[in-house]
Write a structure and sequence with these properties.
Keywords: DNA-binding, Transcription, Transcription regulation
Organism: Mucilaginibacter yixingensis
Number of domains: 2
Radius of gyration: 24 Å
CATH class of the largest domain: Mainly Beta
Order of helices and strands: EHEEEEEEEEHHEHHHHHHHHHH
Protein name: AraC-like DNA-binding protein
InterPro entries: Homeodomain-like_sf, HTH_AraC, Tscrpt_reg_AraC-type_HTH
Structural class: alpha+beta
CATH topology of the largest domain: Jelly Rolls
Helix content: 40-55%
Pfam families: HTH_18
Strand order of the largest sheet: 1-3-8-5-6
């Protein structure tokens, strides 16, 4: 079984990278101080944001690989595993911001940290920064580092947390920009999504597995559920679940026109376990029950 090095504290990770620990729950790590390394699989008990300035082989995140170019940000939530697949030793460069969940507990950021969905993105969904965006990110890191070097007072935690939140808000903006600048690639994903749904409903999968979920569609398209959901919402203006349900309703309308099919039969064909669930969703989305819609048409 493949070995994974676990880091339970910020101090352990600082020591691993030859950095001093100024605060036990938060750190800005200079990766150039770390010893050269090759193959490595690591698990963190804290939030980690990597900014890499060197191409360092294939980055493995979960079961996927990503040819990790310089100048990208990768986000990891607590408990996630990441690693570098490289036969040769390389010298890490760049910065890493790490902060423990306990550090933001009780703050506004702690209450809303789940809204930053990119902490659950896959490595190949990393944030690629322009030169001006890099300067913004490094400015935020510099402010955090300055506070960590300042003698602790009653303002220290508030200022550090505010700067972490500011950095995350900038990352949200930059991801919005990335969704736009990769519009062609994104439209290709939407076309595959539409094709995936068509193929699904033309098969016996609905009867066997039920309605397709967002997680299922994301997996089939080799994307994380969060990235896929964010991409669909940016491109269509509605959540991925709404998109799937709209597709189901379109399929239902076509089949309702066939008087030889009972409404219960249509419900089961589409993947509903119970016909009343089909009736409820149809009324919610269309404004009529399936029976009323059939009578109107």
């Amino acid at each position: 079984m493949e070995n994974v090095t676990s880091f339970d504290t910020v101090g352990q990770y600082n020591q691993f990278n030859n950095n001093e620990t100024a605060h036990p729950l938060v750190s800005v790590i200079d990766m150039s101080k770390a010893a050269p390394r090759s193959h490595s699989r690591q698990r963190f008990a804290f939030y980690t944001i990597y900014f890499k300035e060197v191409k360092c082989g294939n980055l493995r995140y979960g079961c996927n690989y990503y040819d990790y170019e310089e100048g990208t940000l990768v986000f990891l939530g607590p408990g996630q595993v990441i690693g570098i697949e490289n036969e040769e030793y390389f010298q890490p460069k760049g910065k890493a911001l790490v902060f423990h969940p306990d550090f933001i507990r009780g703050t506004a950021l702690g209450r809303h940290i789940q809204e930053y969905s990119f902490f659950s993105y896959e490595a190949h969904e990393a944030l690629h920064l322009s030169e001006s965006e890099r300067r913004v990110i490094f400015d935020c890191l510099d402010h955090i580092e300055t506070e960590l070097q300042h003698p602790v007072d009653k303002h220290s935690k508030t200022l550090i947390v505010n700067n972490i939140e500011l950095l995350l808000n900038y990352c949200t903006r930059f991801y919005d920009r990335q969704f736009v600048t990769r519009e062609v690639a994104n439209k290709g994903i939407l076309e595959r999504f539409e094709g995936l749904l068509n193929t699904y409903f033309d098969s016996d999968k609905p009867q066997l597995n039920g309605l397709p979920t967002v997680a299922y569609c994301a997996e089939q398209l080799h994307l994380s559920a969060n990235y896929f959901g964010d991409l669909v919402k940016k491109e269509t203006g509605r959540p991925a679940l709404d998109y799937i349900q709209a597709k189901v309703m379109d399929m239902a309308k076509e089949r309702i026109f066939d008087p030889k099919r009972s409404l219960s039969e249509i419900a089961y064909e589409l993947g509903f376990k119970y016909p009343q669930h089909f009736t409820r969703l149809f009324k919610q989305k269309v404004g009529y029950t399936p029976q009323e819609y059939r009578a109107l048409n």
